């Protein structure tokens, strides 16, 4: 359990506002350090063989301007690709995803650290309306990214392939989700959220990602 919670504590979380082509958006930002060289982290983000081991299997035209799809339903276009420092994609979901083009983008920035490590930053900007943001707050996407980045840490550390369903159903995974939702609640408060609203959003997010086993 300690290593899982250490990974949770390794990240700094921020909720803010930004812009996507369709207009003003909410942003969730995760910053952390990985004990791996920048080229290794870049390869884990862009190699289909490694990507499926921490995120999901990916198909498509994986180059600048090409379109990709994950087998979990997310899809989009590769908007910027500047190895090994910056990757930006549109991040859409569902059978009518491209009808919502310009509403959600994910950008990852990498920088070499002083000890052959890597400074990692992920920014997800999305136009989120009723009922998602009012119900779940930034944890709606934030907990999912925390789980993914936990899996990335394990891959970079020892090559482990992550069973996402197994993590989310395990006692340690459920505790990780609970604490991740609470951490995004703190980011929401720091971003100006009303305490009563934030508390309800944290509870809703926790139940969504870790429903009562009964």
Written description of the protein model:
The chain is of the alpha+beta class and 214 residues long. The protein contains eight helices and nine strands. Strands 1, 2, 3, 4, 5, 6, 7, 8 and 9 form a nine-stranded antiparallel beta sheet that branches. Strand 4 and strand 5 form a beta hairpin. The two termini are 23 Å apart. The model has no long low-confidence stretch (mean pLDDT 93).
Rg, nearest Å? 17 Å
Q: Got a strand count?
A: 9
- Estimate the strand proportion: 25-35%
Residue-averaged pLDDT: 93
How is the biggest beta sheet arranged? 9 strands, antiparallel
Count of discrete alpha- or pi-helical segments spanning 4 or more residues: 8
Shape: globular
Q: Give me the secondary-structure category.
A: alpha+beta
Brief overview, please?
This protein is of the alpha+beta class and 214 residues long.
Keywords:
214 residues; alpha+beta; 9-stranded antiparallel sheet; 8 helices; 9 strands; 42% helix; globular
Detail the topology: elements first, then pairings:
Layout: H1 2-9, E1 12-20, E2 23-34, H2 38-46, H3 48-54, E3 58-60, E4 67-70, E5 74-82, E6 86-90, E7 92-93, E8 104-112, E9 118-126, H4 132-136, H5 139-158, H6 164-169, H7 171-190, H8 195-209
Antiparallel strand pairs: 1-2, 2-9, 3-4, 4-5, 5-6, 5-7, 6-8, 8-9
Helix pairs in contact: 2-3, 5-7, 5-8, 7-8
